[in-house]
Amino acid sequence: MGKLMNAKEYEESLRKLKLNVYMFGRKVENPVDDPIIRPSMNAVAATYEFAHRPEYEDIMTAKSHITGKKINRFTHIHQSVDDLVKKSKMGRLLGSLTACCFQRCVGMDALNALSITTHAIDAKYNTEYYKRFLKYLEYVQENDLVCDGAMTDPKGDRSLAPSKQFDPDLFMHVVEERPDGIVVSGAKAHQTGAVNSHEIIVMPTITMREEDKDYAISFALPSDTEGITYIMGRQSCDTRKLEGMTFDRGNMHYGGHEALVVFDKVFVPWERVFMYKEYEFTTQLVENFAAYHRQSYACKVGVGDVLIGATQTIAEFNGTERASHVKDKIIEMNHLNETLFCGCIACAAEGHREPSGTYLVDVLLANVHKQNITRFPYEIARLAQDIAGGLVVTCPSAADLASPEVGKWVEKYLKTKPDVPTEHRLRILRLIENITMGTAAVGYLTESMHGAGSPQAQRIMIARLVNMKQKQKMARFLCGIDSSGA
Ligand code: SF4
Ligand code: FE
């Protein structure tokens, strides 16, 4: 191919995959056209579509450092601070255009983290992981692929190391080594965009020690490789998508999805293996991927933009927009949302070059940003529901509005002003419901909490990375305990 795919070409490329997908206990023969999955495919397709828009070209595309060709930024290895800043802006942009999780960041973050770690392993062991990685990267860039970055193992009993679990498959591991590659078993949980991906890139989920070295593996495979099964996660209100294109679905265009991905004795050829038992590099890979992905939560700023726009709109429909407390709550929503934006821009602006040439975000600031993401969207959502009113959870369905019998009553009693169609009011309420409670709430709230690591994971990193000694030194000097400071 060697070109930027458009949305249609992306959709067609997915049709060629033979994915083994299950949902509601049944095999999904055609995920692309499945009404529950399709909105999530549309959201990934948006990452292709907007790359072709001249106004977004600078944000959505980049120049490949290996081929010099124009590529989609989601397949790019960041070559400068400017690249990192544009990545944050791309996240906000796409969040604001889709109001959901557009899923493609995990692969971008996995590629960038692997570019650093494969290079580092080779420097120590004279291996050829980086060479393999670059060949793989070129394949991904040339074909403009979606990669699913798969890090999170099911983890079993959290108090036990991978090799101590009662079931060895609770962490992904090597079950057989062959002359031509390895065979792996295990699973990856909560995999964002799994069935919309061409490739799956597996990484270890935690720091591994020597006794866990069979678990210290990273590799990439085509998503339809034999032995891989996808079990779709349920989302709140997901079956509303089976009701046709009624406005009860809230977001008429886009959605996200997650899946449990099972690997049952799956073969990986050596050229697709990027880490094999080098357990001492697992911390670096996990922490760098996490830092990149915590930066990626710029997406929630964009979803916040839509929620704020929806909240201002419902206030105007209800005639409350001039009430001082409503104005102030909307200011607060904006303040929180822009504060989130500060974090993802700051960690990018403070990025630095790694020995591989890849630019890495400031890890402390990326963790602070994601910690804020675990909190502020909940407050923004609370304020949205406050302003929207109780009707956000009590309004009758689109079918009732269309009913020959009761439609006139819904129309009459839920109307606020002559110039505001009742249907418009219900539509905006359904969008607010979708983002704060429905299928998009997965992406705006719970994913903000647990995606790219749960809150405590960031607090551990913050504790480790702040320069406490320096802070204490200055405090001691300034109050006169010590005679020297800076
Ligand atoms: Fe990207 Fe955000 Fe979805 Fe994660 S939650 S994949 S950062 S859009
Ligand atoms: Fe996510």
Description:
By secondary structure, the chain is α+β, with helices and mostly antiparallel strands. The chain has a domain at 294-475: Butyryl-CoA Dehydrogenase, subunit A, domain 3. 47% of the residues lie in helices and 14% in strands. The chain has helices at 7-15, 38-49, 57-60, 81-98, 105-125, 129-143, 282-296, 299-318, 324-349, 363-373, 376-388, 391-394, 398-402, 407-413, 422-436, 439-450, 455-465, 468-478, and strands at residues 21-23, 26-27, 61-63, 70-72, 147-150, 173-178, 181-192, 199-202, 217-222, 228-232, 258-269, 273-276, 352-353, 359-360. The strands form four sheets. The chain has a six-stranded mixed β-sheet with strand order 2-1-10-11-7-6, with no helix packed on it. Strands 5-8-9-12 form a four-stranded mixed β-sheet. The chain has a two-stranded antiparallel sheet with strand order 3-4. Helix 5 (105-125) runs antiparallel to helix 6 and helix 10 runs antiparallel to helix 17. The mean pLDDT is 97. The structure holds iron/sulfur cluster and fe (iii) ion. Residues 101-103, 105-106, 192, 296-297, 299, 443, 447, 451 line the site of iron/sulfur cluster (SF4). Fe (iii) ion (FE) is lined by residues 101, 192, 447, 451.
